Amino acid sequence: MKKIITTLGLLGVMVAATSSSANTATERQKLQDRKLFGQLYHAALNGEHARVNQKRTQLKNYPLAHYLDYALIRHDINKLPEKVIKDFKQKHPNSPLNRRLKQALLNAAGTQKSWNTYLKYHNGAGSGKQQCWYLNARVATQKTNKLAPLVEAMWLTGLSAPDACDVAFDWWKKQGHMTEALVIKRIKMAYEKRNFSLMSYLKKELKNPPQWIDRGIELLKTPEHGLRQATSWSSDADTVWLLNKAALYLAQKQPMTFQGMWADLQKVHKFSASEKQQIERKNALFAATDYETWSIGAMEALPAAAKDNQIKAWIVRYYLYKQNWPKVLAALNDMSLFQVSKDNWQYWLGRAKAKNGDALGAKKHFELLAKKSNYYGFLAADHLRQSYALCHQSSVQANPNFKAPAGIERAIELHHLGMLWMARSEWNSAYKGLSRPDKKALSDRVMAEGWYAKSIAIMADMGQWNDYSLRYPIAHQKTIEKHSQHSPVLPQWVMAIIKQESAWTKDAVSHADAHGLMQLIPATAKRLSQQLGLKYTDTKQLHQAEHNIKLGIHYQKNLFKRFDHPMLAAAAYNAGERKSDDWSVGFPSSPDMWLETIPYRETRDYVAKILSNVTIYDWLMNGQPKRISHWMPSMPVDNKPSLPWPAASVAKKRAPIRACSP
Predict the structure, then answer these.
(1) What stretch(es) of the chain map to CATH 1.10.530.10?
(2) What is the C-alpha separation between 352 and 233, in angstroms, rounded?
(3) Are 244 and 279 in contact (CB under 8 A)?
(4) Secondary structure letter of residue 628 according to DSSP
(5) Which of 550, 509, 535 lies closest to 420 in space, CA to CA?
(6) b vs e for 492-508, b when ≥16 Cβ sit within 10 Å of the residue's Cβ?
(7) Going by C-beta distance under 8 Å and a sequence separation of 6 or more, which residues neighbour residue 182?
(8) Where in the chain is the domain with CATH 1.10.1240?
(9) Assessment of whether the complete model's pTM goes beyond 0.90
(10) Which of 119, 225, 478, 574 is the most buried (most CB within 10 A)?
C-alpha cells in the first residue's frame, strides 16, 4: 500500500512538473511569436511584402496574423487598393480594422482628388476635412442637386472652416447662395465663439457693414476697454446683444472690475430683466470664488429663481471661509433636500452643528457618513474615533468556465504589444454582450495580464464598487518603491495619484495634453528629465510606464519639498504650484475647511479623491490604514505651523476596519 501511495505521489510530482514545463514552453512560444509579429508588422508598414510573406508562416496560429495584411494594405493605400480592402473585409467581416481601412481609403482618395472613388465610400454626412472633400467631390462630378444646403451647413459656423472646403464654398457663392443675411448670421456666431478674426474676414463680404460689428470686435479684443467705451455708444438691439455677451464674459473673468462698471452700463443700455439676472448671478458667483467681501451680499440679494444649487453652495463656502458657523448652518438649511443630502453637505451639517453646540445632531450626521468608504465617510469616522467601512465584497461570481472571445484575446495580445488604440477597438467590439459572470472572470484575467485599466473599467461597468482589489490595482510596485524610497512620497500615495490621474491607462492623454500614468505635460516632463539627467525625446516616452512613474515621482518629491504638506502638493499637481501658493494665504487652516473652500471644483474633487485613494491603498497594502487625518495636518496658511488634526490622538493612529456585513 505504501508503495502504491509512493508511486502515485511520484506520478503527481511528474505530472505537475510536466504541466509546469508545458506552461513555460507555451509562454516562451508566446513571447517568441510576439517578438516576430512586432518585427513583421513594422516591416509590413514599410511595404516589405516578400519578407512578411516569407516569415509569416511561423505565425500560423497567432491571433493577430491578419494584422500583417492590414499593415501591408496601409502601406499601399495610395494605390487605392479597393479590391484588396474588399477581400480583407470578406475574410474578417467583424474586424474593427475594416473601419480604419475605409477611413484610410477615403483620406487617400481625397488627397488625390479621386472623386468618383471618394463618393463610393463616403456616406454624405460628417465634419472636417472629409466632409469638405465630399462636397468638393459632388461639385467636381457635377452631382450638385440639393448640394447647396449641405455646403451652407458646413459654411455656417462660428469657427474657421477647413481650407479644404474652399472649392465647395466658391461654387456655392457663384451660385448666389451666400446672402448678406447669412453673413450677418455667421458673424454673430463668430462673436459667440469669440472669433474676432473671422468677424473681420466676414465683414469684408458686406457692402455696408453695420457699426455693431466693429464694436463686437473691440469687445472681443479688449473686453474691459470695450465695455468702458460702451457707455458712450448709442444703444440698439444689436449693441445690447453684444454687451450682454461681453458682460457675462467679464463678470466671470474679472468680477471685481466688472462690478465697478455695471451700474454705468445700465444707465445707457437697456438690458432685459432676464439678462440682468444672468449677469448679476455670474458676477456674484465668480466674485465669491475670490471671496470678495461684497459677493455675499450680491448672492443673497439675488431673486429666488437665480439662487440655484451653485449659488447656495457658494454661500456656504463663503461663510466657511469666514468661519461664521451660525451662517454656515443657516445656509445649509436653506438648501433643497436633494442638494443637502449629498455627502459633502451632510458632513458640513455635522461640522456646523458641532460648532454651534449641537453635539448630538452632529453625531447623527457623522454616524451615517461613517458607513461609507469615501473621503467624507473616513473623515466622519475620524471625528467619531470609529472604524472604517472597508470590506472586499462582490455580488458577482466569476464564470469558472469562461472562455474569452477571439476579439478579447486579440485585444489582450495587442495590449502586450503596446498597440493600445487597436487593443481598445478589438475590446469594444468583443466586450458587448458578455454576461456579468463572464465580465467578472474577464476582470480577473486582465488583471493577471497587467491590463489594469480594463479591470477598473469592468468593475465600474458592473457597479462593483466594493471589489477593491480589482478597482485599486497594486501595480508597478517594484518600480514605485525603487523611485520613492527615502522620501515622504510613499508608494500608496503614488498609486493614489495614478488611480486618479489615468486610472492606470498607460497611454492616457488629457485635454490639457498631459500624458501617461501620472499625466505629465510635455514641458513639465522635459524639465523633470533635465533635473534627473535624462534625455527627453517625445511624448511616446511618457507612455512607457516605468519612465512616466520615474518622472512623476520626482515631481511629487519636488512638490512635497516645496509645500511640506500632502494636500498642498496634491492641489499643486492638479491646479499648478502658483495656485497652492495663492491658497496658502488667507484661507482656513482646518484642512477640511481649506479643501471645501478651494475655488476650483475640479481641484476640490481631485484632492478629496486622492485622500480617499491613498487611504484605500494603504489598507490594501498594509492591512490597517493610517487614518485619513494622517494625510491632513492643519494647513500652513499665513506661515502657521502645521499640526496634527483634528487631534494627535486621532491622526497618529491607524484605523481599525469593521467586519463585513453578512
Answers:
(1) 480-651
(2) 50
(3) yes
(4) G
(5) 509
(6) bbbbbbbbbbbbbbbbb
(7) 152, 156
(8) 406-465
(9) yes
(10) 574
Q: Kindly report the length of the chain.
A: 662
Q: What is the dihedral of CA 581, 347, 498, 591, to 10 degrees?
A: 30
Grid cell 494636500 is found at 567
Q: Which residues contact 567 (CB under 8 A, 6 or more apart)?
A: 591, 594, 595, 607, 611, 631, 632, 635
pLDDT of residue 662: 57
Dump pLDDT digits (tens) for 528-554: 999 999 999 999 999 999 999 999 999
Q: In the block, which residue shows the cell 509590413?
A: 44
- Residue 97: CB atoms within 10 Å: 23
Fold held by 480-651? Lysozyme (1.10.530)
Find the helix packing angle between 273-289 and 255-268, rounded to 10°.
160
Which architecture characterizes domain 406-465 according to CATH?
Orthogonal Bundle (1.10)
- Inform me whether the pLDDT recorded for 439 exceeds 90: yes
**Residue 516: which residues within 8 A CB-CB, separation 6 or more?**
502, 506, 507, 508, 542, 543, 544, 545, 548, 552
Q: Closest by alpha carbon to 602, among 510, 488, 464?
A: 510
- Residue 391 has a CB neighbour count (10 Å cut-off) of 13
| Active-site annotation holder among 501, 546, 577, 602 | 501
CA distances from 442 to 400, 418, 420, 555 (A): 10, 20, 18, 35
- How far is it, in rounded angstroms, from Cα 526 to Cα 561? 20
* CA 631/CA 654 separation, integer angstroms: 12
Q: Taking a C-beta distance cutoff of 8 angstroms, is the pair 44, 55 a contact?
A: no
Q: pLDDT at position 22, please?
A: 62
Q: Residues with Cβ < 8 Å from 174, sequence gap 6 or more?
A: none
Cell of 258: 466688472
Does the pLDDT at position 475 exceed 80? yes
662: number of Cβ within 10 Å? 3
Q: Where does 196-271 have alpha helices with state H?
A: 196-203, 211-221, 223-229, 237-253, 255-268
Q: Quick one: average pLDDT of 601-622?
A: 98
Rounded to 5 degrees, φ, ψ at 206 are -100, 140
3 state SS for 399-441: CCCCCCCHHHHHHHHHHHHCCHHHHHHHHHHHHCCCCHHHHHH
Give the tens place of pLDDT for each residue, 4-15: 334 434 444 443
* Nearest CA among 152, 149, 121, 153 for reference residue 134: 121
Task: Please indicate whether residue 367 is annotated as part of the active site.
Answer: no
The amino acid sitting at 429 is S
Phi, psi values for residue 550, rounded to 5°: -60, -45
The rounded Cα 613 to chain-centroid distance in angstroms is: 17
- Taking a C-beta distance cutoff of 8 angstroms, is the pair 128, 113 a contact? no
Q: Which residue, 141, 78, 72, 81, is CA-closest to 111? A: 78
Closest CA to 133 of 163, 172, 99: 163
Q: Any idea of the CA torsion for 429, 399, 506, 93, to the nearest 10 degrees?
A: -20
Share of the chain above pLDDT 70, in %: 96
Q: For residue 535, give the C-alpha cell.
A: 534625455
